[in-house]
Amino acid sequence: MRTVHTLKELRAMLRGFRQQGKRIGLVPTMGNLHEGHISLVRKAREAADIVVTSIFVNPMQFGATEDLDTYPRTLIEDQERLEAAGSTLVFAPSNDEIYPQGLARHTRVIVPEASEGHCGASRPGHFEGVATVVTMLFNMVQPDIAVFGEKDYQQLAVIRKLTRDLMIPVEVIGSPTVREGDGLAKSSRNGFLTEDERVIAPIIYRTLKNTAEQIRSGRTDFATLEQEANEALSEAGLRPDYFNIANSLTLKPASPDDSELTLLVAAFLGTTRLIDNLSITR
Ligand code: PAF
Known about the structure:
By secondary structure, this protein is α/β, with parallel strands linked by helices.
């Protein structure tokens, strides 16, 4: 497995693979890889001959008060894990490689509707940053397929829409959330949790499951269910950002007639913001 840091090196490597007729897969990450990321690489391996894993902590998707500076950067360990998982190539560019003129002067990609509400409402500009860097990665790697985690449900919706709208010839594949034994979704941010917070954190998935159970048993009073879920999270010591019951396709508030629903949650535990979701069919 090779690691390259510049677009020039990346393109040279990919040219060779393309000449050999290889199918190229991309797994975009911000590094500090855990089992969730590794499952994305494995999925990409099933669908492609060559897997490029990008590692770039994208400053454009962090708000001014967010954790850009403390976001864990663990390139050496990530390389070892990626090699074991069967990634062919790691692309780990610097900020200057991606944003040579700086963030303020860089062209941005805005994805209407999919970026609205949920995390889009609480993290203004976040999905603009994600959409911009993912579009650039698609252009740099020109993959046949790209794999993203379903844990970031809204992000996946944003990426699917930008791919369709900008007619980018890549197949976007979603990969199921990987969880700890107690249900907590694997996340690089779990490492920020104190021991006590880590004990509390699985309440997020339990609350999703409880709410899904209530809906399956026939409840359609979604606003009340959302309020009850927020209360359950608050009582456990979290500070809910949102708990929303949405139409899985549009991500708009669910109506009682919808058959495909997704429950989306974001909550703070101490200073750590955790997200999760659960989709159900009625
Ligand atoms: O999900 C992530 O890790 C990031 O948002 C992504 C898709 C790599 C873009 O920076």
